[in-house]
Amino acid sequence: MSVMWHTDEDIKDFTVKYKISLNTEKPIEKTVSSKALVISGKVERYIYECSLETNISGKTISYEIWKGKSKVFGSEFKTKPFKNEEVKMVVFGDVGTGNEIQRKIGDLVIKEKPQMVAISGDIVYNRGLVHEYDHNFYPYYNTVERPFMSTVPFFVAPGNHDLETRDLNKYKDALAYYFFWNQPLNGPVMKENSALHPELIGTDSLKKEFYKNAGNKYPVMSNYSFNYGDSFWLVLDSNPYVDWTDSTLKKWVSNELLKAKDFSWKFVMFHHPGFNSSRAHYEQQQMRILSPLFETGKVDVVFNGHVHNYQRTFPMQFSPSGTGSRIATASNQTRGRVISGKWTLDKKYDGKTNLKPNGPIYIVTGAGGRELYDVDQTHDKDSWQPFTTQFYAVKHSFTSIAFNTRRLTIKQINIEGETVEDLMIEKP
């Protein structure tokens, strides 16, 4: 676990002191690494990081940031839970709008007291720029009045508004995802202009500057996996420039899910939903191609964003008919794929009495702040696809989950604090 912070000035004498739980011994003191974030030849800020030796479970870490002999900040967080512990998490997407709705949803998320927060893409609007984080993200989740990120770890899936802006000539502070997040670097390794990563656009000097700012996070950090308690998480880049029909990438997904075999719960998170009943973004079905791998890997739930409402499928299995038809923009950039096929739906599972689903459940939780999509479809069931069993677009909302070794509870909560629906899954 790392502690990260930013300053406008280059401060050389930062240290971090921390204690584990109620240990009364002298705090452990760690040195701090720093990096200047340079945009267009000018230092935009300084980013500091201190890695704490917290490869232990079930403990509370109290930490303090010191400047010389003065304490400037202090907080605490919990380390990774034991496998047999109850875990509570929140998942929501399409959040970084800089509006009052985002603030209200954020306050409700804080009240849930999750141990970890997951964002299913579109972390910050409109283009994932450095200055957009300052206006549309940090003020809502990490201030003196709202010190959420200083106590609860966040992890994120990159969305289109985070990674699709790649022209440094036009947007010199683009791709801030690679500057501000610190996530596992265990994703597939491919170069630019491959099945996984498009080419970065810009002058040689701008690209050199970006590569130095991003360090070893680019481009590998867009896909990763980790475990938390008795759960395994696989996070994917679902942007249309990724060709998930590529055999190397599919093999990587399969191998990652094999690592999950000793965990009760297997979750996948990416931005673009493969199964979506909204008129908005319905054609972006490119992630359907991975459904058979999710089924083989015994994935329990797939979390998505992108579509600004809440949707849930029946537990389902899907057999794609080939790789689908590529959809392109006027400039011949890939916008997505339409993938037809055969789905098998488990309509016996109800989450109340029948708690053992046959197949993954796909959840769209993209109502975290941006304007809602297709409100009228909420009560128009004739407009839903056959795989959809819940559709809620009348109010913004987020997903709260809790699990132990045997049972998973999923609850959708709207901006008024009302429960939209709740369901359970049990292991045999």
| Main sheet strand line-up | 11-12-13-14-20-15-21
The percent of residues in helical segments reads: 10-25%
| Largest sheet features | 7 strands, mixed
CATH superfamily of the largest domain: Metallo-dependent phosphatases
What is the CATH level 1 assignment of the largest domain? Alpha Beta
CATH architecture group name of the largest domain: 4-Layer Sandwich
- Which percent range describes the beta-strand content? 25-35%
- Compute the average pLDDT: 96
Which fold name is given in CATH as the topology of the largest domain?
Answer: Purple Acid Phosphatase, chain A, domain 2
Secondary-structure content class = alpha+beta
Key attributes of the depicted protein:
single chain; 428 residues; alpha+beta; Immunoglobulin-like; Purple Acid Phosphatase, chain A, domain 2; 2 domains; 7-stranded mixed sheet; 6-stranded mixed sheet; 14% helix; 32% strand
How does this model look, in words?
The protein has helices spanning 100-112, 130-136, 138-141, 160-163, 177-180, 204-214, 247-258, 291-296; strands at residues 2-7, 14-20, 28-31, 33-39, 42-51, 60-67, 70-78, 87-92, 116-119, 154-156, 224-228, 231-235, 265-269, 301-304, 310-313, 316-320, 325-328, 334-338, 341-345, 361-365, 388-392, 397-403, 407-414, 419-426. The protein contains eight helices and 24 strands. The longest helix has 13 residues, at 100-112. A seven-stranded mixed β-sheet has the order 11-12-13-14-20-15-21, covered by helices on one side. By secondary structure, it is α+β, with helices and mostly antiparallel strands.
